[in-house]
């Protein structure tokens, strides 16, 4: 009987915690949506009262009608999928290059001294500055746009990987050496697990960077993609379509970041415990 009471108490406690968590989550969502809703309401009223010129700043309702029309025709999905395809290719290539180099640079001090000046110089050059030379080298097709994405994503991933490897606890390294681990096993079983959270920060920053760089490349030289959609709308003075493209870029960026955070939480379930310990 006593054991049954303990079980019931435990169930009630877990249910209460879950309800509190749901309430706090809904509260965060409401607080996060309040400001955008107020801005949209003021914007709509100003457009309807002709306080602002709808030619330059269409009302949210007219933008939403255009959004629905573009979704119904499939035009928006086509441009979005084209941009996402370029993003996936470029981001995968950047991560494949940046993480191994970052581990090598972070682990080998001598190599770090050799490459740091060059990498620090390249880091200061914005990705969009390379677009003309990439077009000259690779043509106006997909390769030049993917190259811009790779360049934009490389440095956040690389620098965070280096920082993560440098920050590995020396005691863990000593334990690995005491077990006579090979260099490959040290990287796989000591460095990567210890630097995983920092590497994921770099992946998120890199993904955000390459998404913005991709749109910039499409604005300059592309016949498809969200950047191209915005440029075509500008050429025909279609402000509502420009806003549709801008909002789609923002929403897609949020969803991509959310997806990466979900992957991070699945691969590293201990992160929540670590954060909770840091906040307590």
Write the layout of secondary structure elements.
Elements: H1 2-48, H2 60-73, H3 75-107, H4 109-123, H5 131-138, H6 142-166, H7 170-178, H8 183-220, H9 226-235, H10 239-267, H11 270-279
Helix pairs in contact: 2-10, 3-4, 3-6, 3-8, 3-9, 5-6, 6-8, 7-8, 8-9, 8-10, 9-10
Walk me through what this model shows:
This protein has two domains: 1-52; 63-279, MetI-like (MetI-like fold, Orthogonal Bundle). It has eleven helices and no strands. The chain has helices at residues 2-48, 60-73, 75-107, 109-123, 131-138, 142-166, 170-178, 183-220, 226-235, 239-267, 270-279. α3 runs antiparallel to α8 and α9 runs antiparallel to α10. It is globular, with a radius of gyration of 24 Å. 28% of the residues are buried. The mean pLDDT is 82.
Keywords:
280 residues; mainly alpha; MetI-like fold; 2 domains; globular
The major pleated sheet works out as:
none
Q: Which structural category do the helix and sheet elements fall into? A: mainly alpha
Specify Rg, calculated over alpha carbons.
24 Å
How much helicity do the residues have? over 70%
Mass-distribution shape? globular
Low-confidence stretches are none
Provide the succession of SSEs: HHHHHHHHHHH
Structure summary, number of beta strands: 0
Q: Provide a count of the helices.
A: 11
**Per CATH, what is the topology of the largest domain?**
MetI-like fold
CATH architecture of the largest domain: Orthogonal Bundle
Mean pLDDT, rounded to whole units?
82
CATH class of the largest domain: Mainly Alpha
By CATH, the superfamily of the largest domain comes out as MetI-like
Q: Into which percentage range does the β-strand content fall? A: under 5%
Domain unit count: 2
The end-to-end distance, rounded to whole angstroms, is 36 Å
């Amino acid at each position: 009987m006593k054991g049954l009471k303990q079980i019931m108490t435990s169930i009630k406690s877990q249910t209460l915690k879950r309800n509190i968590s749901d309430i706090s989550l809904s509260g965060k969502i409401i607080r996060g949506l309040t400001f955008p809703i107020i801005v949209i309401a003021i914007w709509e009223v100003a457009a309807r009262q002709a306080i602002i010129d709808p030619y330059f700043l269409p009302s949210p309702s007219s933008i939403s009608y255009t959004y629905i029309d573009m979704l119904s025709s499939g035009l928006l999905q086509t441009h979005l999928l084209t941009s996402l395809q370029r993003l996936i290719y470029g981001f995968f290539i950047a991560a494949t290059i940046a993480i191994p180099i970052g581990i090598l640079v972070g682990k080998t001090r001598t190599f770090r001294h050799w490459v740091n000046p060059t990498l620090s110089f390249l880091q200061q050059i914005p990705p969009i500055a390379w677009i003309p030379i990439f077009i000259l080298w690779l043509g106006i097709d997909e390769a030049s746009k993917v190259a811009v994405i790779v360049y934009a994503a490389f440095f956040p991933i690389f620098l965070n990987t280096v920082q993560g490897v440098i920050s590995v606890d020396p005691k863990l390294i000593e334990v690995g050496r005491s077990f006579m681990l090979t260099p490959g096993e040290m990287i796989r079983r000591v460095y990567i697990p210890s630097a995983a959270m920092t590497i994921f920060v770099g992946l998120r920053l890199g993904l955000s960077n390459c998404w913005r760089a991709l749109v910039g490349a499409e604005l300059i030289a592309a016949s498809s993609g969200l950047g191209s959609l915005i440029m075509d709308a500008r050429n025909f003075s279609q402000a509502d379509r420009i806003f549709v493209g801008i909002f789609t870029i923002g929403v897609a960026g949020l969803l991509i970041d959310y997806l990466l955070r979900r992957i991070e939480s699945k691969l590293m379930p201990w992160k929540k415990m670590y954060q909770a310990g840091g906040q307590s």
